Amino acid sequence: MKEKEIQENMNKSIEATQRNFNTIRTGRANASLLDRVSVEYYGAETPIKSLATISTVDSQTISIQPFDISCLQAIEKSISMSDLGITPNNDGKVIRINVPPLTALNLSKKGYSVLIIEKEKSQDYKPCAGGMASSMQRFLPLNIEDCIESKIKNVEFRWKAADNVTADLTGESPFWIVKREKLDQLLLDESLSNGAQIMRPLLIEKIIKKNDKWEITCNNKIKYITEFLVIADGSQSKWASYFNLGPRKPKFANTISLRLKGLGEIPRDAVRFEFGFIKYGFAWAFPLRESLNIGLGTFINNGLLENQAINKQVIRSFGFDDFPHKTISKKLRIWNGFHSINGDKVLAVGDAASLCDPFLAEGIRPSLISSFYAAEYIDQCLSGKVDDLNLYTKKINNIWGKSMAWGRRIAQVFYRFPRTGYQLGVKRKTAPKRIAQILSGEMSYEDIAKRVIRRLLTRSES
After folding, report:
1. Alpha helices, DSSP H, located in 99-247
2. How crowded is residue 226: how many other Cβ atoms within 10 Å of its Cβ?
3. What count of other Cβ atoms lies within 10 Å of the Cβ of residue 14?
4. Which of 5, 180, 275, 301 has the fewest CB within 10 Å, making it most exposed?
């Protein structure tokens, strides 16, 4: 290869890397943040930058001036429905976006005193499939490349180990598999490096309000005083119910998780969803570098996973000989309606807030999103910009709950009539692509539902 060609290839690589960096949120306004957001314009998906002049007004504000004023609302909707987690302001002529500073990982980065109380020691293995939309990097002020085990290009669907359907993921590595215990440790280390403190193993025995502050008593008999509480103790949270955060009667999925050495028959760049074996649910296989995260879950009617013969069939469909004796059974708290997830100076995040996807069991994305906005609204309270945390609940219900409301409806129909659901919901020509787009954060269940409704209305009119 000639020197000129080498230089051209290097320049192209640098430009591609720069484009990817530009679309990561850094807490400052950057017009390139919108590069990956498209608008349906006259039937075609069109980048916003082709429809409008995009400029930065100041360090926290982006201005969007459409060439055609008629597409103003379409641009606003696309930004709202994107995974950027930003709410656009439309004055009828121009759209403005205020980019909040990154407080997701750390209130400690802003100089606040943060204490983390963990009931367990650090875990070598966490029962989590590890699937994560790469767009979630925007909610993290650090690089998590070392935690990424696989970058997924294909999503495979099977009905009882046959009737294969494969969907290609669009874009460059839009879906990652991370090792959850490694990601959690990275985030914890970053918090500690910014001044946060951790106490573990420590069991909280009592929490009371005293002089407008929270007094926390632990089993070491030491009392800790704090102004704000973040409840993040997962699906088995007792404190979310104690503070009346989330649904009064949480809904749970029953799951079994395991990690097997080797990848079996699963390609390193693909995830597989296996339907038909598990009543009221499905099984999944997500590849790590040298092992496979496998899960089985039931999502309605409190279905159980005690049939060992069926469980063995699932494992064999993934390319392994037998069902191992060592598994982790867990009740996963899933989204179950619009509820307040904040109180007076207290809020819940992630699984404790019942945010897990009720159809595909995705948990990392809502955990990152809710943690981001929890920190943001606590910061706003502490700095005197707002009086309470009520905007936190409104925000999460808007950017996550609206989609999950449709996800729950889909789950209730799909898992009651799984064979029909597979034929109509997976084997339909565009369905695999849509599910892949949900996993990668490109679409929501609400988007899909509206497309279906629009298609049905068109047919009825004709």
Report:
1. 180-193, 239-242
2. 17
3. 10
4. 5
Domain ranges of the chain: 19-98, 108-449
Query: What three-state secondary structure class fits 295?
Result: strand
Token output for 257: 């998780």
141: preceding bond cis by omega (within 30 degrees): no
Return the CATH number of the domain spanning residue range 19-98.
3.30.1360.40
Q: What whole-number distance in Å separates Cα of residue 230 and Cα of residue 247? A: 17
How many C-alpha atoms does 262 have within 13 Å on its Cβ side?
A: 7
Residue 382's H or E segment, with its range, is: helix 364-382
Q: Which SS3 state, helix, strand or coil, does residue 215 take?
A: strand
CA 13/CA 93 separation, integer angstroms: 38
Amino acid at 445: Y
C-alpha to C-alpha distance for 420 and 247, rounded to whole angstroms? 30
| Distance of alpha carbon 130 from alpha carbon 190, whole angstroms | 20
Structure token pair of residue 395: 């925000």
Yes or no: is domain 108-449 CATH 3.90.870.10? no
- 221 Cβ neighbours under 8 A, 6+ residues apart: none
Sequence-ordered list of residues with C-beta below 8 angstroms from that of 238, at least 6 positions apart, any chain: none
pLDDT in tens, 228-260: 999 998 888 899 999 999 999 999 999 999 889
- Asked whether the predicted pLDDT for residue 454 surpasses 70, the reply is no
Where are the strands (E) in 262-407, listed by range? Answer: 270-275, 281-287, 291-298, 328-334, 342-343, 346-348
Taking residue 460's Cβ as centre, other Cβ atoms within 10 Å add up to 7
pLDDT of residue 345: 95
| Structure tokens that stand for 183 in this block | 């990601």
CB 353 within 8 A of CB 341: yes
**397 CB-side CA count, 13 A:** 14
Nearest-CA neighbor of 132 among 357, 430, 397, 434? 357
Name the amino acid, one letter, at 54.
I
What tokens does 235 get? 């699906």
Q: Is residue 119 within 8 Å of residue 199, measured between CB atoms?
A: no
Task: Say which residue, 443 or 240, is predicted with more confidence.
Answer: 240
Chain centroid to CA 203: 28
Tokens of residue 224, six digits: 């800790």
State the CB neighbour count (10 A cutoff) for residue 361: 21
